[in-house]
Design a protein that fits this description.
Layout lengths: L15 H14 L3 H43 L4 H48 L1
């Protein structure tokens, strides 16, 4: 006959490393308004800086490719006039890369400045 007064259980405790990993995962899913605001602020800052860089680098790379095409028109195809015109177009594009960066940077700063300032003010007020 079985003894019904008997109770058995098994206790399991995670190791210290597993516990730290579990707690770090848990913190990612806990609601923390200031952490969410900080992440949003960092994302906006990266967006304001990354997009103008990407656009200006793209303009510069295409300008370099067009310049190279113009040079190859001169050297390989002996088409001097069209090669010079194409190369000049490439040089103009290379020269426009920095002004394009400045213009795009100004545009994105104006677009996101209100939200960035609002978030940074909220985060600074929470610190005090």
């Amino acid at each position: 006959m079985q003894n019904s007064d008997k109770f058995e259980y098994t206790y399991f405790a995670p190791s210290a490393e597993k516990r730290k990993r579990i707690e770090s995962i848990r913190r990612e899913y806990e609601f923390n308004p200031s952490a969410n605001k900080m992440k949003r602020l960092e994302l906006l800052d990266k967006k304001v800086k990354r997009i103008p860089k990407t656009i200006s680098i793209t303009v510069g790379v295409f300008g370099t490719l067009i310049l190279g095409f113009g040079l190859s028109m001169i050297i390989e195809w002996k088409n001097f006039i069209w090669g010079v015109l194409t190369g000049m177009l490439g040089l103009v594009m290379i020269g426009l890369a920095f002004p394009v960066y400045c213009l795009c940077s100004k545009k994105y700063k104006a677009k996101y400045s209100k939200e960035i300032l609002r978030l940074s003010d909220e985060l600074l007020k929470n610190e005090k």
